[in-house]
Amino acid sequence: MEVISIKRFMLPFLLVALSITSSFLIKAQDVREPVLDVSGNAVRTGVNYFILPAGRGNGGGLHVASIRNRTNPLVVSQNADESALGSSLRFSPVDPKENTVRLSTDMNVKFTSMVISDSSTVWRIYTELIPQRYLVTVGGVVGNPGRETLGNWFKIDKYEDAYKLVYCPGVCNICRPFCGDIGVLVENGKRVLFVGRDKPLKVTFHKL
């Protein structure tokens, strides 16, 4: 009888232990791999970085430019001169408690080394400058994930031996946004960032 009592006691204990272990494993799998800078360190929130193209001869860093005689909004552009670092940026993951930028995770991107008098420096998607083109511009907002801020969220994914920027927000369960990689479109001699299904801009992250 004593052996039977021990077995009856152990069974629910084992079931609880298995449940806790399974929950831990599921949470561990949900933690995505961190994005690394060129020094091999995790990219952090609250820290300034330069986004630069991978490899030589592929242009310089990122800044803003005006196109088609429009100064509002300004588009995110790439310097043609590869020696130009561009403007520094910070990343803000959708989870405000997260201090590491992780792969395939929604985040806001904000220029930190510039001030624009009539606009924020947060990245967003804008479709009215060039018809049927999803350009990356400034003028977005940080936080408040949902339908109203759908155009303000970007992701970083691995691409070959470096990374790529992606627009495919997951902050609205009922929304069906256009998704694509961030590439470069030449408009009147200016290299502007846009969402497309062509070759993405392969990038690396350099801590300021």
TrEMBL record:
Q: Which residues form the signal peptide?
A: 1-28
What Pfam families does the annotation carry?
Kunitz_legume
Which InterPro entries does the entry link to? Kunitz_inhibitor_STI-like_sf (IPR011065), Prot_inh_Kunz-lg (IPR002160)
- Tell me a Gene Ontology molecular-function term this record carries: endopeptidase inhibitor activity
Keywords linked to the UniProt accession: Protease inhibitor, Signal
As for family, the record states: Belongs to the protease inhibitor I3 (leguminous Kunitz-type inhibitor) family.
Protein name stated in the entry: Miraculin-like
Give the organism, scientific name: Capsicum annuum
